[in-house]
Amino acid sequence: MEHPDRTKVVLLACGSFNPITNMHLRMFELARDYLEDTGQYRVVRGIISPVGDGYKKKGLIEASHRIEMARLATESSDWIRVDPWEGQLAEWVETAKVIRHHYEELVAAEHCNDEVDTVRVGKKRRHEEREGGPYSNHLRADVPQLKLLCGADVLESFSVPNLWKSEDIAEIVGRFGLVCITRAGSDAWKFVHQSDVLWGHRKNIHVVKEWVTNEISATHVRRALRRGQSVRYLLPDAVVRYVQEHGLYSAESEEKNADVILAPLQKYAKGSS
Ligand SMILES: Nc1ncnc2c1ncn2[C@@H]1O[C@H](COP(=O)(O)OP(=O)(O)OP(=O)(O)O)[C@@H](O)[C@H]1O
Ligand SMILES: NC(=O)c1ccc[n+]([C@@H]2O[C@H](COP(=O)(O)O)[C@@H](O)[C@H]2O)c1
Ligand SMILES: [Zn+2]
Question: Is the pLDDT assigned to residue 105 strictly greater than 80?
């Protein structure tokens, strides 16, 4: 059904996707069902944004492979796509910047749609003048909402010292919004309750309970691959084939960045943000 009265939402998942697993894809399906069940939203697109090599996480293989695996994994979906913009950047960028980039893309796409409709363009210009430019801090009602999609472990990581800037967290939950899938070992509701910033924006944080608890993790998949064990049915078949064809994930690749500090920790510990 079309539901023209509902707010359109685009979901953006940022992460290593090293490699992409079936659970990453399930996150999107769970989030869409949850948001649409509220009767308020219509989820129109899902975007997977693999992090760039500059993130320097231990065992992180080249972005080109991670992007291609995500592309193969989403081939069968009619609404989830991989976006290579973040992954192709040489340096790591904050998630808040990634969200802003994608929001600007949504605004630009809406602008193109509008160009044929001069009345709306005129209205939009007046709106932009009032709001201080096309990419001002305010969200526009004619553009879909963009929400960050993540697992509860990422929400919990907000409290790790020197990992996230507090203004970025405030922008993500305050300006955009967060959809968080529960994950074994992380208590998302407790975490929201304990943080004043998150609690203040709780209406913009949707915690989605995964009843079919599923502990698939990319770490587990990489470990199985190193040991020559099967990972079939944990990953889409096309991704399993790609891993085999390119001989990905070995003891050697797991040692990548082993003695390097994760990019955000490097950046914020130095106070150079
Ligand atoms: N089983 C899961 N349940 C809920 N969320 C998940 C699950 N697996 C991954 N996610 C979420 O997917 C996003 C991308 O995560 P990431 O690429 O780190 O996957 P991962 O499986 O956690 O990998 P790794 O083990 O390398 O950390 C994050 O928001 C993470 O919380
Ligand atoms: N300060 C920040 O913006 C910040 C800090 C840590 C991780 N992240 C992002 O969160 C995601 C986490 O991915 P992993 O769970 O695979 O480490 C990545 O996309 C990474 O860029 C962002
Ligand atoms: Zn992870």
Answer: yes
Closest Cα to residue 205, out of 218, 191, 223? 191
pLDDT digits (tens, 9 = 90+) for 27-51: 999 999 999 999 999 999 999 999 9
pLDDT one-digit tens code per residue, 143-177: 999 999 999 999 999 999 999 999 999 999 999 99
Q: Give the contacts of 263 (CB within 8 A, at least 6 positions apart).
A: 54, 55, 56, 91, 92
Q: What is the pTM of this model?
A: 0.92
CA-to-CA separations, 2 to 28, 30, 51, 175, 176, in angstroms, rounded: 19, 20, 33, 26, 23
Closest CA to 147 of 99, 190, 193, 189: 99
User: How large is the ipTM?
Assistant: 0.98
Residue located nearest, by CA, to atom 15 of ligand 2 = 15
CB of residue 16 inside a 6 A radius of ligand 2: yes
State the Cα–Cα distance between residues 239 and 247, nearest whole angstrom: 12
CA of 196 to the centre of ligand 1 (A): 25
CA of 42 to the centre of ligand 3 (A): 27
Question: Which of 155, 183, 191 has most ligand 1 atoms within 8 Å of CB, for mutation?
Answer: 183
CATH 3.40.50.620 applies to domain 7-272: yes
Which residues does 240 contact at the CB level (< 8 Å), separation at least 6? 231, 232
Question: Exposure of 152 by Cβ count < 10 A (0-12 exposed, 13-18 middle, 19+ buried)?
Answer: buried
pLDDT digits (tens, 9 = 90+) for 49-70: 999 999 999 999 999 999 999 9
Asked if 226 and 249 count as a contact pair (C-beta separation under 8 A), the reply is: yes
Domain borders along the chain are 7-272
For the chain, how many residues are written? 273
